[in-house]
Amino acid sequence: MHRRRRTAFLLTAAIAAAPLLTACGSDAHPGAAAVVGGERITVSQLENRVDEVRAAQRAAVPDEAQYQQAIARTGSLTRDTLHGMVLDRVLEHAARDAGVTVTDREIQQMRTGLEEQAGGAEGLEAAWLQQYGIPPQRLEENLRLQLQAQKLAQRIGTDTSRPEFWQALSKAGKELDVDLNPRYGDWDVQKSSRVDAKTPWVREVTAAAGAPLTL
Hints:
It contains 8 helices and 3 strands; from the N terminus they run ββαααααααβα. It has 215 residues and is mainly alpha-helical.
């Protein structure tokens, strides 16, 4: 894979600012894990997403001891999954308002590049599951969000590591009136990151910012 795309990858919240989006949970929406833009993320929906990850972990690690280790490493999975689901909606809103669109072809192009670096489709799926808690069936959905984040940052003249990008998300969150059930903690941008920039091959395969996609 040519090393032609070297921009920071996705929502790496590597900034020293305090959480940019706040959400005061309340009892106004019983049965909701969160409410974003008046739309509920139900506890049932959250549990289903967590079950997807646990099922994928079980399939990937059939040994019981190793499976228990995987669970231990992802002990905050429920909270992290909810924060990611909220962030996804905030990012969708911000990207839509900025006129950012992502095509299926762009997603496939990014996936192909990542698969080359990961040693194939199974390697990529395993990496996303192990490191980021993204099950295989959610991979392309997550890649779409990666591209949205990069294109949004590019549209506002920054990148995803800069405060300006997070300020844009903060504005979107306020517009949507994010309300988190207090049992899942306070909204924390850093805990909402879906992918970090620590893995070298992830840093190399970026898409929209820094260099144009070859379409």
